[in-house]
Structure formats: structure tokens, C-alpha cells
Design goal:
2 copies of one chain form a homodimer. By secondary structure, chain A is an alpha/beta fold. Chain A is built from 9 helices and 15 strands.
């Protein structure tokens, strides 16, 4: 299942409105088929893996990160039917599909066809990797990641706005990799005017994965950009299950104040700036006590001499 | 030697102007003597360990964190002479003593008496643990630790000054432990006026180790406090080899601007504050490039849900 999850990662940010699923088919101790949801959402991971496996799927075990779909579409048959027809003997599913067209029906259909189905394997990891799809299903909006690159004292620039460079090359390259995992990047007017950012993916081999660009504005977006009027309006962004908010302080604060941040991606350089520009504007905090318990560290890593930390929003 | 270093830790912040040395005497695979510099600087670690070992020191091996002193004083004989007279066969020394009255003479005297001497074992760790003494010897001033307790976005309080609590109980207890390792704590006028801080050590068993209190002011200190006019004046503080700067932002910035901070002790709570009070005032940074390469992470630990980090000033 860990291998299937690694495959699902490949589709992150490219499969909306479909989930980024991964699938591995194992027979006699060997992997005979591998698949992941393709850009735009089709083919599905299971169809791709079964096509590779061919006859080897008979009697094999399939590992799928999400419950196979139970609904036929003009673009292809239901994956539960494909799996049943392939002759696989066992299917491991990490997570049930909340899509009402499937939601248990995929597993039921497999079992009805005589396939042994086990679920729950690495469910938490699967929920993290397919978080954009799940957030869209549950809350009707994309999963929002807020990126902040700061000094040890929480500054994102010097007082006059200079911010090149706070973090090092490895951290900046990692930001580009994160961009490639999002359908859309958003900045505020201040960042747009000051930096005229390209916001593209400048990593060899991933240039084609540069996301759509959005500006937080009540006005009209410049050419090549889309306008987002407010954090509360992100549900209307078609084809966006992962939104990457890159700055600046007022835009970040607006998303936090609206409780529209699900993931904090922090890069911290081992430097001190002193009187500069703070990472965040007013987030509407009334009391220190209410600030606690909102964020849980879920990943941390050194990138050169910078520390990366990922915090997830805790919602009870 | 690691055990001797652990003993040296016991004296940190209590032995100035003497170094906080640790000493272990091993004979036939057993520890027969343990010593550490006592409060006020006497007895020395070696004298204490030899007193415990008694006749068992004959033919034994001694581990000392600093080169044994070569100078007699009215308060006791030179440790190099004591060790030689005790009959120890071998002495391991972590670090040479830069005090001109010893500086190689302690080791020479041991060798002249027929004792085998090895030096350099765990020297870097020893330099860290006896950093206050070494800074005083090298630069004529105490080692300065700056403590900052911030949110993830680098704020030390809400906009109206409320700061209870940003960090949790474990981090706050750790701060009290750090206080006990310093001869003096210093705050600025703003912190004094706003918090009227006690700055004592509120840890069971360590209450008696509350350090002297200083106020950064050009005026007169209140009763029970000492006045320090400027960061550049700390060399004149008699009996202070470790100075703990606890706030606030202007005081911290003044010490950083004067390059009088050797150790950054950061506590970071997993919360966001937004528009609040920044950790630092103006530190006089002219360019981002010059901010890099100044700080090296040397320790990190989770305290409850807060992360503690210790950075050391890199001086080339």
C-alpha cells in the first residue's frame, strides 16, 4: 500500500475533480501492474494498473489507495467492475470514497463478485495524500496550504521589503516542488505589485506542471491570472482541489482569519532580521488561549541549513 | 569524560570567576572519586574527587574537563600538584586552560611528575559546558544567552502585550532550569515596568539558585536589582560569567546589534498570533546577506508541544 501511496502522490494537483489514486497489483510476490490517476482525472489508477497486468491480474492482489468507483461514466467503466472482471482475488483499500456515487458501493460490488476486500490499511496516510479531493467532497472547497518563509524571528522581509534571500536554494527548490502539487497558486495585490511573481515551477522536468495563478482581489485579474474575491470564495474555483497561498502577510492573514488554511508549510532560515516585515497581518485572534490546539506538526526536515515544518489544522 | 562533563554541568553559573570543572577518578573499572567545582569556585573539582578517592587514587586514571591549575592560591594548592601527589598514573584532560597562570603549565607539571597525560577528549563538548569561563578568559566578558519564546510567526505577545501563555509548562520549567545555570538575568525597562518580573528559579530543589537580577538602564536600578548601562558594559560585571537576557524586544535587539549574544535559546509554540509584538527591535541589519552564517543550530528538543532550539553564534 505504501507503494500505491507513492504512486498516488504523482497525481497530486493534476487530477481534480477526480482523486489522485494509486494502485499496485501483486502476483506471486512480484508487482505486475502499477497505475495512478492521470492528468485531468482519466484513466483511473486501477484501469492503468490492470492494463499493465493483463492476464497476470487473475488471482492477484490489488492495493488501491481509495475505494474503486462504482459509477460508470461516458469516459470509462466503473473501476469496481473492471477489477471484478480482471479476476483479482483480493483487493486492499486504504480509504472509503466519500463520493455519494461510490461511498461503499464499490466495495460492495467487489464482494458481490466474490473478491475478498480489506480496508483501512494506511488510511491516515492516504487521507493526507488525497486531502484535496477529500476536502472538496467534505467541505466543497480546495485544501489550502499556506507557505511562509521566515527568519528565526518570524520576519519575511527587511523593513524596506527586500527578501532575497532568506531561505537557501534547497528550500526554494522545495517550494517549486510544492507548487507542482497544486492546481492553483494565489498571492495578494501587494506581492503581485512588488514582485510581479512568475509563480511557475522551475524544476527540470516539471516545468509543464506550473499551476494556474490567482490574485486575491475584488477587482479584475491581469492577463494570465484569475481573480479570487475572498477566501470564502475558493469553493467556486473549478478544477482546483489544492490551493497554494504564497503571500504576502495580509493575504495569509485573510485566509487564517477566515479559517481557510489547512496546512502550514514553514521554511525557517537560521538568521535574525530584527525590525522587518512580519509574516502575518491581523488574524483576528481575541485571546491567546484560543490560539492553542489549532496546529499539529506532521512533518519536519532540514533543507540545507533551513528547517522545513508542516503543520496541519486540527479540526475537532 | 562524558561523566566528568555531566559533573561540570552542576557548577555552571555558580563558580565564577573559576571554571565549572568536572572530575572523575577511575580505578580497576570502578569510579572511586567524583568532583565538581563548588559554589564560589572552591574546592576545585580535582581536590573534591581526590578527597573521595583517598588511597584508591594510587595508580588510577583521572578524567578532568579542564587542564588542572598550576597556581597555588591562599585558598588551596594547585590541582596539578595534588594529582601528582595522589599517585594517579594517567590523566585525561578535555581542554587546555587559557588562564595565563596555567595555560600548559598544569599538563607540563603532571608530565614532569611522571603522570601520563592525554588531552583533547570531548574538547568541543567541554568548550560548550565551560563556555562562560572561556568567554571571560578570551574576551573579558560573560557568555550571553538570549532567550526568546515565540509563536510560529515570531510574536512574543499579542498587540496589547498579553503573553500568558505562549509556551507550555514544560518549556517554562526549562527556562527556570536555564536561569539556574546563569549568575545573572537581565531585562529591559519595558519588561520590568510591564511585568515586574521575579526572574527567580521556581523549580523544587533549585530555589536557592536564583541568579542576580539586572536592569538595562542608564539610570539607577531598583532595590534588589543591578544596573547595566549598555551591552558593551557587561565585562565589568564581577562574578558573572553567564548572563541570561530575557527580554524584551528592544533589549534583545540592543544585545544583538552590539554582537553581544553568543547563544540563542528559542522556544516556539505551535500557535499563530498574527499582528502582535515582534520578538526583536532593530538589530542594525544592513543587508540580508550579512545575516547568513551567523548562527548554527547545536541543540533541539520537543518540550510538550513546543520546540526548543539552541543556536550558537558562529565567529570565525
Amino acid at each position: 500500500m505504501a507503494a500505491a501511496l507513492a504512486l498516488s502522490e504523482r497525481g497530486r494537483g493534476r487530477t481534480a475533480p477526480n482523486p489522485n489514486v494509486g494502485c499496485i497489483i501483486v502476483s506471486g510476490g512480484s508487482v505486475v501492474g502499477r497505475g495512478w490517476t492521470q492528468p485531468g482525472g482519466r484513466p483511473h489508477a486501477e484501469a492503468m494498473a490492470l492494463a499493465e497486468a493483463g492476464d497476470a491480474a487473475r488471482g492477484a492482489t490489488a492495493y488501491v489507495t481509495l475505494e474503486p468507483c462504482a459509477h460508470q461514466s461516458p469516459r470509462g467503466p466503473a473501476c469496481a467492475d473492471l477489477l471484478a472482471a480482471s479476476g483479482v482475488a483480493t483487493v486492499h483499500v486504504a480509504l472509503g470514497d466519500p463520493d455519494p456515487r461510490t461511498n461503499g458501493k464499490g466495495i460492495a460490488r467487489l464482494r458481490a463478485a466474490g473478491v475478498a476486500v480489506h480496508d483501512g490499511l494506511l488510511a491516515a496516510e492516504a487521507a493526507r495524500l488525497m486531502g484535496g479531493f477529500l476536502m472538496r467532497q467534505r467541505s466543497g472547497r480546495p485544501l489550502v496550504t499556506l507557505k511562509l518563509a521566515t527568519s528565526l524571528d518570524g520576519q519575511i522581509a527587511m523593513a524596506d521589503g527586500r527578501s532575497r534571500w532568506i531561505t537557501g536554494a534547497a528550500a526554494r527548490a522545495h517550494t517549486h516542488l510544492e507548487r507542482a502539487r497544486h492546481e492553483m497558486i494565489l498571492v495578494g495585490r501587494g506581492t503581485y505589485d512588488a514582485d510581479a511573481p512568475r509563480l511557475d515551477v522551475r524544476l527540470a522536468g516539471l516545468e509543464a506542471r506550473s499551476p494556474r495563478r490567482a490574485l486575491l482581489t475584488r477587482g479584475v485579474a491581469p492577463e494570465g491570472w484569475e481573480a479570487v474575491a475572498a477566501p470564502g470564495a475558493i469553493g467556486a474555483l473549478a478544477g482546483v482541489d489544492h490551493l497554494f497561498v504564497e503571500g504576502g502577510a495580509q493575504t495569509a492573514a485573510a485566509f487564517l482569519a477566515a479559517d481557510r488554511v489547512d496546512r502550514l508549510l514553514l521554511y525557517r532560515a537560521p538568521i535574525l532580521i530584527g525590525r522587518g516585515r512580519a509574516a502575518l497581518g491581523d488574524i483576528g485572534l481575541a485571546d491567546l488561549a484560543e490560539a492553542h490546539g489549532c496546529w499539529r506538526l506532521c512533518d519536519t526536515r532540514l533543507l540545507g541549513s533551513d528547517r522545513m515544518e508542516v503543520y496541519e489544522r486540527v479540526r475537532i
